[in-house]
Amino acid sequence: MTESTTTTPNRSLNLKTETPTPETCKSSEHFNIIMNKIHDFFNEKKFCDVTLIAKDNIYQIEAHKMILCASSDVFLGMFGGSMREAAENKGNLDIEGPILELVIKYIYTASIELTADTVEDILRAACLLQLTPLKSLCCDFIVKQLDSSNCLGIALFAEQYNLDDLYKQSETFVCDNFGKLRKDEEFFKLDVYQLSKFLSSSDLRVDSEEDVFRSLMSWIDHDKTNREEFMSKLLHHVRFPLLTPKFIASCIEPSCKSIECERLICKAYKWHLLPEFRLSLYTEKHTQLRNFNGMVMAISGWSANGGALNIGLYYPVLNDWIYKSGIPALTFGREDFGSTSFKGKLIIAGGVLTTTKELTDRVDCLDLKTFKWSSLAPLNTKRKLFGMASLNGCIYAVGGCQGGVNFNTIEKYDPSIKQWKYVAPMNYSSPVLVCVSVTLNKLCVSIKTGQGMSTMYHHNLYDPANDTWTYDWLVTNDNLVGTGTVSVFSNDFFIAVAKNSILRYNYVIKSSEVISLGKTFVKGDCDHCEGFGDRMIAYGNNLFQEYNPFRDEWKTMPKFENTQGKVLLISNQSYNP
Fold first, then answer.
1. Which residues contact 470 (CB under 8 A, 6 or more apart)?
2. Which residues are registered as beta bridge partners of 396?
3. Which residues lie closer than 8 Å to 4 by C-beta, 6 or more apart?
4. Which of 442, 440, 513 is nearest to 243 (CA)?
5. Left (φ > 0), alpha (ψ -120 to 50) or beta: where does 114 sit?
6. Over the stretch 534-552, which tens digit does the pLDDT of each residue have?
7. Tens digits of per-residue pLDDT, 13-31?
8. Fewest CB atoms within 10 Å of the CB: 78, 184, 499, 553?
9. What are the residue ranges of CATH 2.120.10.80 in the chain?
10. Burial of 384 (0-12, 13-18, 19+ CB in 10 A)
11. Residue 423, phi then psi, degrees to nearest 5
């Protein structure tokens, strides 16, 4: 008789057993090994239990039911229920044989080779089989191929198959390149619903609202017999408040024959001629600039002794400031200089050097992406207390003085030749130049003359197209601190005056009115004023305020934190870092 003994596990590794909590361990290789083995079974046609039949009824692929059902709800419904396919273990698919083979191999391997010739058919198959990851791969591939020759077709394809992300990206491309696409053959293939969708978009990037109307007319003229009936429907998407009465009368009115079109034109004229009825005529969307993604740039910390600059960038979309601090000041500190924004750069020109008190002709620019300084060609004339503005890809330096001499000269910087050259001079010269702004594609130069009770402000227009001036199109006697054009009202010019009011001048009816400050306006001295798209931005008493002409009201913008030293306010409608 043998004595029974109790055996214990052989713990030759002598590991500690006191740790009470077990550790869950996972192998990253396990599933890969299994899927590779299943893929081998697929290639060798081992254990296959279903047959997929392609569109031609000839191309057949044997596969594993469990793998297919786990990958696609379409296969799960086909083989996992009471359908005929489940009983017969066969399924017919409306997919071409070679494409079906690529898709099934993707199901087993999670990889697929995409080409420009196959991606569209593979994406259709992925949509049919509800293979979301494969759809994403195809859409990512297509986005990389987006260009002006295919973006409209891709947008329509994405809309047809409910590919939201692909549609948004292709629509964005269409809107960003609309100026080119409206001349492309694909544009003329759009139906009226598709065209309406694009024309109504606020993201459409066009030089002016005139381009929207011209694209509409080119689409109609391409097949006038069948498309002319859609004229009034499409005209509803044109933002008439952004067009001048002259353009409406000369370009739109002759093209309109229906009663509905005439009603739209009459409504547009009423808008321009009777400002008091504007709120009842259009929604705010119809008065907003398209694709306006600009910013307001405020610079503080500027002093005669130099020092670091603090730049705040205000984006209306965010309704907040983004700060860039500690930016090096100019090596040559200066006062009484001119400044403007130009193609993503801050331009500082002329003025008085703080070290020597001498006038300078230096022109420096700060890149708002790299925040590094560089130099441009010097001015032809050393000047101070002058105005600057950018228009049509050039920079203008206007007026100013040197010693006891007041200038009426204008210099234009042309980046294509990297030089300044003189253009037609003004009739006026003044030791105080109030403002240079851009309106109606012209420079508006506001000059102060006289003193005391005889002080007058002369507003003059310079047309760069023919190098000519229009003098005294408006004369005011209020203490002027800034001017600006709010582009949404294409016939209105806005002037900010120091007694906290805004003067609106209408080009068409040639009359002016003082605009109500509104209940939300915070009173205080106004130091700066800038037109900003369809808004006016004013700065004073360390507060930034925004005026909405459509609503005739002010609102206080988020607080600008860096207000030490001199503050420069520059609006920039095109730069988007």
1. 460, 461, 463
2. 389, 412
3. none
4. 440
5. beta
6. 677 777 777 788 877 777 7
7. 777 766 667 788 888 888 8
8. 499
9. 295-572
10. buried
11. -120, -175
* pLDDT of 562 strictly over 90: no
Residue pair 348/361 in contact by the 8 Å Cβ criterion? no
**Cβ neighbours of residue 223 closer than 8 Å, sequence gap 6 or more:** 188
Q: Where in the chain is the domain with CATH 3.30.710.10?
A: 33-145
Is pLDDT of 129 > 80? Answer: yes
CA atoms within 13 A on the CB side of 29: 0
In three-state secondary structure terms, 75 is helix
Architecture of domain 295-572: 6 Propeller (2.120)
Tokens of 48: 């296959």
CATH 1.25.40.420 range(s) for the chain read 172-287
SS3 of 201, please? coil
Q: For 33-145, CATH number? A: 3.30.710.10
Q: Are strands 442-449 and 456-463 parallel, antiparallel or unpaired?
A: antiparallel
Q: What whole-number distance in Å separates Cα of residue 462 and Cα of residue 70?
A: 71
Residue 314 parent element (H or E): strand 309-315
Amino acid at 103: V
At 243-286, the pLDDT tens digits run 888 889 999 998 887 888 889 899 988 887 787 777 788 877 77
The predicted model scores a pTM of 0.62
